[in-house]
Amino acid sequence: MSQKKKIELTRLQGIIAVASFSSGVIIASVCLFFIPPLGEIASSAISIVSELLVLCGAILGVKASYDVKFRKFEAELQDVIEKEKQPTT
Predict the structure, then answer these.
(1) How many domains does the chain have?
(2) Where are the alpha helices (DSSP H) in the chain?
């Protein structure tokens, strides 16, 4: 996989993580605190959905952050290798 595709994938994961986390928090706050249920929906069902969305956002966010830091570390190592290969006079 090319470097550009990896960056795009990491950016997409970051966007999905933020969207998932935000929607989980919004669902939890709106459905559990502001809107009374119209029918027979247990609050635990709504909280499970929101918790899973928050978990998904957290996992993807950590992975995207790790990918960015790993790429930065890899670039620094490449710089060190290039400097060592240069002949010293």
Answers:
(1) 1
(2) 3-29, 43-85
Residue 57's CB is within 10 A of a number of other CB atoms, namely: 21
Q: How many CB atoms lie within 10 A of CB 15?
A: 12
- How far is it, in rounded angstroms, from Cα 64 to Cα 20? 14
Q: What is the full per-residue pLDDT of the chain (89 aa) written as tens digits?
A: 677 777 777 778 778 777 877 877 787 778 777 777 676 666 677 777 777 777 777 777 777 778 788 888 888 898 888 888 887 66
With 0.70 as the threshold, say if the pTM is over it: no
Domain limits for position 18: 3-85
Q: Which residues contact 76 (CB under 8 A, 6 or more apart)?
A: none
Q: How far apart are CA 50 and CA 23, in angstroms?
A: 8
- Residues recorded for the chain: 89
- Tell me the backbone φ, ψ of residue 41, rounded to 5 degrees: -115, 120
